[in-house]
């Protein structure tokens, strides 16, 4: 059987949340204190209600207001085995042979839905107020309903009132079920009042024939909210458990139980050093793996697992192993995690982002994580890069990402604390390298990313037509830098000189002096190098303005048609002639002279402005040549960030400050949606 839907009201921080589309493997992600644990806590609450166990009421109701009722709706999908058992019980109760009824292919009892309510002022007392199921025609019908207006607020009075309702034989509504004789039937109700009847009951539940389904599901489930201070009991499967643990953590030796003569303890014999170590001295990761191993080895697939951060204290390899074993166990799993391994490796269809907004928890179902993964792969990113953030700033390359992080720190904007992730698109494939496809790729990401986001793109030599096209697709979700590329914002003489001095010191060389003369030298060299790049900029512009021909000026299919037409000796000459003809036609169609003349005039006019020249010259090439003058090799990954960190707040351009502010706003926006 499978829990497929869960609605929760007024439980801890969960004012009203809904999880739909639950599958075998379900992953809840989100920041700390967002409410993930409360969702698992709801299932544990129901489990304790069903089993009649004591419930700690402290902080159980949202806002601490015990006048509010906790409401939980669970929908269970039955497997054939469970469904047949319920039908058999129903037949026995209804005194009717249901084998003669054609229900094999019908919707009847494929799902059962239970509505729980706690008693006002006594949240430890809960009962099923309504149970529904699917009828043969696929419609939901109520098969049990209890009126709560006759229940008092005093625990003892509540019990008496419920018992009075039972003794009165409150009728059930079976009219919609053709397989049951209409009217007059009552259920043999039973109650579970907890472990001790001498004390006030912990809770009240009212099982009847379909209630056994939920009792079985929750009663056999395991809730792992903490792994410390636990007392595992090992049975005949000790060797399997040891094999499981050693596969996840190869450095551990033989499982020892008992470890000492005086008391039974669990430990491990370490081959290296030849000594025994108690379980509590091995670290939380070992204890965690052991607890899960015991459950997986000693229980069947009918036992669900509710896990809170199973990755804690485990290295990525052990996390992947654990996830594989959990997934292969065939049981339903609902887990919370902060680990990218669980998000990226599993790529579960049932993935939920949990966030805390305005003192309330909300849940967002990522309906198609596979599709998100596919579109993110185009830019070299993964699901966790997007789904584990409240907002995302997409930048073009890894050095851009580190540079924006450095600027954010200088500006006092802790993007990580605001839940904003910076994702580099520099690891992308052909789609991101081909300008015509960039808008399509980014639009796909924007459509499937379930969090606020912003793209920041270099201007490069993009034409106004291309910029307008991308703006038309993404709107206010994209910003084009006003300067050519991010390195153009780093051409600050003082910061560059400081970075050069640091690089000399790293190489144990005497750095150039930090003096006005040195600053002037850096400034003059920067301007001189930028001015010398006029031809480079012109060629880049011309190339960006030329239309791209599919297959190039001489497509492969034309080459293939030529091969049968001539013997090998003359083939080369024929191909050369065809290529020359093709290029001649290509150049004529391009009207290359006109393109060159237009771009040259435009650039010459802009180049006269010294400030504009510093914005148009390729910043990376300027820095590369500048570092060479000082006998250094410019490293894009490290030196870009080095210069960014050296910049003072007043040296960071207003445009960059606005982008960082917009990125910070993404995290705040997520808390208001």
Plain-language structure description:
This protein is 43% helix and 17% strand. It is α/β, with parallel strands linked by helices and 673 residues long. It folds into 4 domains: 2-22 and 57-212, no CATH class; 233-298; 392-480, no CATH class; 487-672, no CATH class. Helix 15 crosses helix 16 (516-532) and helix 15 packs across helix 23. It is elongated and about 90 Å long.
Give a brief rundown of this model.
The protein is α/β, with parallel strands linked by helices. It is 43% helix and 17% strand. Helix 1 crosses helix 4, helix 16 (516-532) crosses helix 22 (619-629) and helix 17 packs across helix 20 (592-607).
Topology, pairings included?
Layout: E1 2-11, E2 14-20, E3 25-29, H1 36-51, E4 71-77, H2 80-94, E5 111-119, E6 122-134, E7 140-145, H3 155-167, H4 211-219, E8 222-224, H5 238-248, E9 254-256, E10 267-270, E11 275-278, H6 284-298, E12 305-308, H7 316-328, E13 333-337, H8 340-346, E14 350-357, E15 360-366, H9 369-377, H10 383-387, E16 391-395, H11 398-410, E17 420-424, H12 430-433, H13 435-448, E18 453-457, H14 464-474, E19 478-480, H15 493-506, H16 516-532, H17 534-545, H18 556-562, H19 568-590, H20 592-607, H21 610-616, H22 619-629, H23 636-646, H24 654-672
Parallel strand pairs: 3-13, 3-14, 8-12, 12-13, 16-17, 16-18, 18-19
Antiparallel strand pairs: 1-2, 1-4, 4-5, 5-6, 6-7, 9-10, 10-11, 14-15
Helix pairs in contact: 1-4, 5-6, 7-8, 9-13, 11-23, 13-14, 15-16, 15-23, 16-22, 17-20
């Amino acid at each position: 059987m499978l829990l497929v839907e869960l609605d929760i009201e007024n439980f801890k921080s969960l004012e009203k949340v809904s999880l739909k589309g639950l599958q075998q493997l379900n992953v809840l992600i989100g920041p700390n204190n967002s409410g993930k644990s409360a969702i698992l806590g709801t299932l544990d609450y129901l489990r304790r209600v069903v089993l009649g166990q004591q419930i700690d009421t402290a902080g159980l109701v949202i806002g601490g207001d015990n006048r509010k009722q906790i409401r939980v709706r669970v929908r269970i999908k039955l497997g054939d085995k469970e469904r047949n058992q319920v039908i058999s019980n129903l037949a026995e109760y209804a005194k009717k042979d249901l084998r003669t009824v054609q229900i094999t292919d019908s919707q009847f009892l494929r799902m059962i839905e239970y509505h729980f309510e706690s008693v006002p002022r006594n949240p430890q007392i809960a009962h099923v107020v309504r149970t529904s199921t699917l009828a043969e025609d696929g419609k939901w019908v109520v098969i049990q309903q209890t009126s709560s207006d006759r229940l008092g607020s005093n625990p003892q009075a509540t019990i008496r009132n419920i018992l009075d309702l039972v003794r009165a034989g409150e009728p059930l509504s079976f009219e919609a079920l053709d397989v049951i004789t209409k009217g007059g039937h009552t259920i043999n109700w039973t109650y579970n009042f907890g472990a001790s009847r001498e004390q006030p009951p912990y809770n009240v539940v009212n099982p009847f024939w379909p209630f056994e389904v939920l009792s079985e599901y929750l009663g056999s489930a395991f809730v792992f909210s903490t792994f410390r201070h636990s007392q595992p009991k090992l049975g005949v499967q000790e060797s399997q458990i040891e094999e499981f643990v050693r596969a996840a953590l190869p450095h551990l030796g033989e499982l020892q139980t008992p470890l000492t003569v005086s008391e039974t303890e669990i430990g491990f014999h370490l081959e290296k050093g030849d000594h025994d170590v108690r379980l509590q001295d091995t670290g939380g990761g070992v204890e965690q793996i052991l607890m899960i191993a015991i459950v997986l080895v000693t229980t069947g697939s009918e036992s669900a697992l509710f896990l809170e951060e199973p990755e804690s204290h485990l290295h990525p390899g052990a996390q992947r192993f654990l996830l594989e074993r959990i997934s292969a166990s065939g049981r339903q799993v609902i887990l919370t995690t902060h680990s990218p391994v669980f998000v990226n490796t599993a790529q579960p269809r049932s993935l939920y982002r949990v966030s805390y907004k305005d003192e309330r928890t909300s849940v967002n179902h990522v309906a198609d994580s596979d599709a998100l993964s596919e579109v993110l792969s185009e830019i070299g990113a993964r699901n966790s890069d997007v789904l584990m953030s409240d907002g995302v700033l997409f930048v073009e390359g890894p050095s851009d990402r580190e540079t924006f992080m450095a600027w954010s720190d200088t500006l006092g904007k802790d993007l990580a604390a605001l839940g904003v992730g910076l994702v580099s698109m520099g690891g992308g494939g052909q789609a991101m390298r081909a300008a015509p496809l960039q808008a399509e790729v980014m639009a796909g990401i924007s459509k499937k990313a379930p969090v606020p986001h912003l793209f920041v793109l270099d201007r490069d030599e993009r034409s106004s037509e291309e910029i307008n096209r991308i703006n038309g697709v993404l709107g206010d979700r994209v910003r084009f830098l006003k300067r050519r590329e991010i390195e153009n914002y780093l051409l600050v003489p003082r910061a560059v000189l400081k970075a050069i001095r640091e690089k000399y010191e790293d190489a144990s060389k005497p750095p150039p002096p930090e003096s006005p003369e040195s600053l002037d030298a850096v400034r003059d060299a920067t301007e001189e190098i930028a001015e010398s790049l006029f031809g480079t900029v012109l060629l880049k512009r011309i190339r960006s303005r030329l239309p791209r021909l599919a297959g190039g000026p001489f497509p492969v299919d034309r080459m293939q048609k030529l091969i049968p037409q001539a013997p090998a000796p003359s083939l080369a000459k024929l191909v050369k002639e065809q290529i020359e003809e093709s290029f001649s036609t290509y150049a004529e169609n391009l009207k290359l002279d006109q393109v060159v003349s237009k771009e040259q005039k435009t650039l010459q006019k802009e180049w006269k402005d010294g400030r504009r020249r510093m914005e148009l010259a390729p910043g990376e090439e300027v820095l590369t040549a500048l570092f060479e003058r000082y006998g250094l090799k410019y490293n894009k990954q490290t030196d870009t960030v080095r210069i960014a960190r050296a910049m003072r707040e007043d040296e960071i351009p207003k445009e960059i400050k606005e982008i960082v502010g917009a990125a910070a706003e993404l995290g705040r926006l997520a808390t208001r949606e």
